[in-house]
């Protein structure tokens, strides 16, 4: 045979013979039968085993030619011919035939025919045998004997070998005998082995026929795997009741029972030609989902997640799965989304599920903080891993193609649109999706937003403001809008339809904002309400347990009592377990940092929309336009509410995760919408902005001014606008429109006080405040009026509470008095005393803060505090409280354990005196004190100075200022009395109808036509913008100056003074005469 036609194996053999000294020959020596099966040489001799002589080593010296595949005779003949010419040594010294460590290299294996190779490999792949006495292979694997296939081969007088022509029948026969009656499990193992064979076989080239054999084998394997799934009855009577793919998807893909990448690649490639395999895989995904819906995080859920993830790695499978009727079933109820949609059970898994939380936080009332913290850390780690896997699955679907992306966006939209009731005033949690499910949805959407949320906001302009005008996925039809009623919003969206389609960035941005509202924010709200419920139940249980003694002597009722008490305790434990789990989930640094990054984009996008400025490329400029953009007004309120809720939670719990950039943006949005509070309708949202600033100024770690305090001190934007913004909302908080507005306003104002105290050391704030006060007088007078009102109220409530505590304590401690009361009356007295103590504690805290603010502002805004409409009420209030503190009845303020209430009479007196001293240089203030006929007493000034000197609570300079003020007031008082005596009783038409004082600047009210002094109506309108006589709306600009009456008053005063003067002079003449 020519050298060009000689096989590689033949060439190697000839080279070795030449090297050994043998004659070169072109004859191709065929391997002995020992290299192949004995069945091949004698097909009819079915029982004789194959001869293996050439492969059996000699017991003495090994013949080297036997290793080359020669027969013994050929080897002997060759030895005789070459014996004189060569010297055979038992070990070859050639380096080419030895390993580096000196060991002998293995000899080349004898070649085998394609038929033999095919038979051997097919037997190994399918673990079959055609020999009835062979039960296991060399590795110990159990073999399946194919009796029918062997019989067919014998009948056809064919070699007793397997090949691709008989393989289909062999597969059918083998699968019918599959161990355990599981044909698919058997065929899956065969498929994996043939796939490994394809990867592991060294082919001579692309045309190597072995390629075709193995590819055809794998094709048949896959076809019969499909039959085992879709038509299991063809393999016998053992028909599985469920999709056999499911169990194998749950197994590790790398093990023999797991669904591997090769299998899914081959299966997905057949989707176009065979719908049954597509249906089988989709059915398996659906069954995975259904089974997982019955499990929680305490069970083996990871295999289900891995199984679905493996399926979703293939775009064709993604397309098929997302077309499933179970993907977004029509008419699904909110509470069923997490169990009846395909993705629902995967997103449902959470430590916030009742069974899981009770396992992590068992007996929560008995656990210390370390245990709770460690359990929360474990909760966070488990959920963080799971949420990452959920994101990877979702991201795979998004990247699979446009259609698949649309379908998963539809599923996310279903989750948020169906759960609007999660933010209702009263939520029935049986009719909405669980908090754990919605938190996972929110987390995944946050991660889907990360690719476009770069630090430079380069893609913020891709978020389309017209998204909601283009038939959006997100349903906002019944959502409260930022500053528009439902009718106006409906008209705007219906009459201004936008053209085109929305991009993916806009879609996922609006979905994520909605998910935050119904997900993490709803969970925060529920956790807060659950804490209150648990605490209330604990009080009820305590009261219930106090009744135990009534049932001790009756076993029947005692058993019922114990049962009821045990049920309450279990409910309390369950609630605290859920609270701890929810808190652990929500305090995940990584998840919240990702959430804050998203909220940065929401903030900048909202400010761009409201201000109409190119943020953040250019700095924000306020004031904003008087005309609010319509597209901003009709946005859902939860855009702003989400910002306030998220940052309130972060600044109040884990402020250290906030970055400087995030702090700067949150300060900007807080100041902007507090300064322009008319842009936002809901006072609760605006109060949330104050709360963010308040929490941001609280001390934590080594930051005494909190996470925002230093920024507020140094920010040019804050220096210019923060104080005005806070003062404006301080005024607006007087009426929040809620049934709790009276208490809300004090909470809001308390938080405003804390922020102001934090920034007050910066003189820039005070300088800007003084400048603005001279320009915007009305605004500052209105602020001062509210501050004076608050001080008046809290001082009165606090001091009156101490008087009542003093009196009630004396009564309760008096045995003589208590003996005259019944048991019910005694309990009533005791309860009343406790109520007053609680009231005193609450109001005393507010008193300290409001007095501190009054001192700060009266020092900087003395002119505003001494305006005619303010000064009289302020002086009357200060005189009244000074009388209470140092007058004859001051002893009634003495109570036991004053420190328990935070009550320090000396410090409070010092604060009141500081306000006096701050305004002591204003004549209006001095005359207002002098005109106070109810509470002013010169002796009070003297007594206060004595107390300050005795306790050393004021410096000598402050004492001198106080005494000087007392002298000025006394002089003014004498002058006032003299003037009043000179004027006498004024005519009724000159007297103010509300204050009963002589009017100085009379005005006519436009609707009631009543006449009042201008200062009186201005003071009234500061608190109530209506005509006091008919309650019609009224502004100070609408009053009409009564110049005629003013002239009459001036003439009357001049006449009375002249008459009085003449009378005095006449008396003096008479006395001299």
UniProtKB/TrEMBL annotation:
Gene3D superfamilies linked to this entry: Zinc/RING finger domain, C3HC4 (zinc finger)
CDD domains in UniProt: RING-Ubox_UBE4A (cd16657)
Single GO cellular component term: ubiquitin ligase complex
Domain U-box: residue ranges: 985-1059
Keyword line: Acyltransferase, Coiled coil, Cytoplasm, Isomerase, Nucleus, Rotamase, Transferase, Ubl conjugation pathway
InterPro entries: Ub_conjug_fac_E4_core, UBE4, Ubox_domain, Znf_RING/FYVE/PHD
Sequence ranges of Low complexity compositional bias: 31-46
Pathway as given in its UniProt record: Protein modification; protein ubiquitination
UniProt biased composition (Polar residues): 55-69
Protein name: Ubiquitin conjugation factor E4
The organism of origin for this protein: Saxophila tyrrhenica
């Amino acid at each position: 045979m020519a050298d060009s036609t000689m096989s590689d194996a033949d060439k190697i053999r000839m080279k070795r013979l030449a090297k050994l000294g043998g004659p070169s020959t072109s004859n191709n020596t065929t391997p002995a039968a020992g290299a192949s099966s004995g069945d091949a040489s004698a097909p009819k001799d079915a029982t004789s085993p194959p001869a293996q002589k050439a492969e059996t080593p000699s017991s003495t010296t090994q013949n080297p030619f036997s290793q080359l595949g020669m027969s013994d005779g050929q080897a002997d003949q060759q030895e005789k011919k070459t014996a004189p010419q060569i010297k055979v040594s038992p070990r070859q010294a050639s380096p080419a035939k030895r390993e580096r460590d000196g060991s002998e290299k293995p000899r080349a294996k004898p070649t085998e025919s394609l038929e033999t190779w095919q038979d051997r490999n097919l037997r190994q792949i399918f673990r079959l045998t055609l020999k009835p006495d062979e039960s296991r292979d060399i590795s110990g694997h159990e073999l399946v004997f194919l009796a029918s296939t062997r019989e067919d081969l014998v009948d056809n007088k064919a070699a007793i070998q397997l090949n691709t022509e008989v393989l289909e029948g062999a597969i059918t026969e083998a699968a019918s005998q599959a161990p355990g009656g599981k044909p698919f499990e058997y065929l899956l193992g065969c498929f994996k082995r043939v796939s490994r064979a394809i990867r592991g076989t060294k082919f001579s080239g692309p045309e190597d026929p072995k390629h075709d054999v193995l590819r055809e084998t794998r094709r048949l394997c896959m076809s019969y795997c499909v039959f085992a799934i879709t038509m299991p009855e063809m393999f016998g009577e053992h028909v599985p009741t469920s999709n056999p793919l499911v169990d194998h998807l749950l197994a590790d893909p790398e093990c023999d029972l797991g669904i591997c990448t090769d299998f899914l690649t081959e299966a997905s490639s057949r989707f176009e030609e065979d719908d049954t395999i597509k249906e089988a895989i989709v059915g398996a995904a659906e069954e995975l989902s259904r089974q997982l819906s019955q499990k929680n995080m305490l069970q083996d859920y990871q295999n289900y997640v891995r199984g679905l993830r493996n399926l979703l790695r293939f775009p064709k499978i993604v397309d098929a799965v997302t077309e499933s009727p179970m993907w977004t079933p029509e008419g699904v109820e909110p509470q069923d989304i997490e169990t009846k949609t395909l993705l629902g059970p995967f997103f449902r898994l959470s430590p916030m599920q009742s069974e899981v939380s009770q396992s992590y936080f068992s007996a929560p009332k008995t656990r210390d903080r370390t245990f709770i913290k460690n359990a929360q850390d474990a909760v966070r780690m488990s959920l963080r891993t799971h949420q990452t896997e959920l994101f990877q699955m979702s991201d795979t679907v998004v990247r699979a193609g446009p259609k698949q992306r649309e379908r998963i966006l539809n599923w996310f939209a279903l989750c948020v649109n169906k759960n609007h009731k999660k933010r209702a005033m009263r939520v029935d949690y049986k009719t909405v999706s669980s908090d754990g499910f919605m938190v996972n949805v929110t987390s995944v959407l946050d991660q889907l937003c990360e690719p476009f949320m770069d630090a430079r906001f380069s893609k913020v302009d891709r978020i389309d403001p017209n998204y909601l005008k283009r038939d959006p996925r997100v349903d906002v039809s019944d959502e409260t809008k930022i500053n528009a009623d439902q009718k106006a919003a409906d008209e705007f969206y219906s009459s201004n339809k936008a053209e085109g389609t929305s991009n993916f960035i806009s879609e996922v941005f609006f979905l994520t904002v909605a998910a935050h509202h119904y997900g993490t924010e709803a969970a925060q709200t529920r956790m807060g309400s659950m804490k209150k419920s648990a605490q209330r139940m604990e009080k009820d249980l305590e009261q219930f347990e106090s009744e135990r003694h009534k049932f001790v002597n009756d076993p029947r009722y005692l058993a019922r009592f114990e049962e009821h008490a045990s049920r309450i305790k279990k409910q309390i434990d369950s609630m605290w377990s859920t609270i701890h789990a929810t808190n652990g989930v929500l305090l995940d640094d990584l998840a919240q940092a990702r959430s804050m990054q998203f909220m940065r984009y929401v903030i900048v996008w909202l400010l761009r929309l409201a201000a109409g400025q190119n943020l953040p490329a250019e700095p924000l400029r306020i004031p904003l336009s008087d005309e609010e953009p319509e597209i901003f007004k009709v946005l859902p309120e939860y855009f702003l509410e989400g910002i306030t809720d998220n940052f309130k939670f972060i600044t109040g719990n884990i402020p250290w995760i906030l970055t400087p950039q995030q702090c700067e943006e949150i300060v900007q949005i807080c100041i902007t919408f507090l300064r322009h509070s008319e842009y936002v309708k809901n006072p609760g949202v605006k109060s949330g902005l104050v709360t963010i600033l308040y929490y941001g100024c609280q001390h934590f770690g080594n930051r005494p001014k909190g996470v925002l305090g230093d920024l507020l001190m140094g920010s040019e934007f804050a220096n210019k606008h923060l104080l005005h913004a806070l003062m404006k909302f301080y005024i607006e908080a007087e009426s929040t429109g809620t049934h709790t507005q009276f208490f809300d306003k004090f909470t809001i104002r308390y938080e405003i006080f804390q922020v102001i105290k934090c920034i007050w050391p910066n003189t820039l704030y005070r300088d800007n405040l003084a400048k603005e006060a001279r320009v915007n007088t009305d605004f500052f007078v209105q602020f001062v009026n509210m501050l004076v009102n608050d001080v008046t109220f809290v001082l009165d409530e606090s001091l009156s509470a101490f008087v009542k505590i003093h009196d009630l304590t004396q009564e309760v401690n008096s045995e003589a008095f208590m003996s005259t009361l019944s048991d019910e009356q005694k309990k009533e007295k005791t309860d009343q005393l406790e109520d007053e103590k609680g009231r005193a504690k609450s109001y005393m805290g507010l008193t300290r803060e409001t007095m501190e603010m009054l001192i700060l502002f009266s020092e900087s805004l003395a002119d505003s505090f001494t305006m005619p409409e303010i000064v009289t009420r302020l002086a009357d209030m200060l005189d009244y409280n000074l009388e209470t503190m140092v007058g004859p009845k001051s002893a009634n303020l003495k109570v036991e354990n004053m420190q328990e209430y935070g009550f320090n009479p000396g410090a409070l007196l010092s604060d009141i005196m500081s306000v006096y001293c701050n305004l002591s240089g204003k004549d209006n203030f001095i005359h207002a004190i002098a005109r106070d006929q109810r509470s002013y007493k010169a002796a009070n000034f003297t007594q206060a100075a004595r107390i300050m000197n005795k306790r050393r609570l004021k410096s000598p300079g402050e004492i001198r200022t106080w005494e000087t003020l007392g002298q000025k007031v006394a002089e003014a008082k004498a002058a006032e009395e003299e003037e009043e005596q000179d004027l006498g009783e004024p005519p009724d038409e000159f007297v103010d109808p509300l204050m009963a004082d002589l009017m100085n600047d009379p005005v006519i009210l436009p609707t009631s036509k009543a006449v009042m002094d201008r200062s009186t109506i201005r003071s009234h309108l500061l608190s109530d913008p209506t005509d006091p006589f008919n309650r019609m709306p009224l502004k100070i600009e609408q009053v009409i100056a009564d110049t005629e009456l003013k002239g009459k008053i001036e003439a009357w005063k001049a006449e009375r003074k002249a008459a009085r003067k003449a009378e005095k002079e006449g008396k003096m003449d008479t006395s001299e005469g």
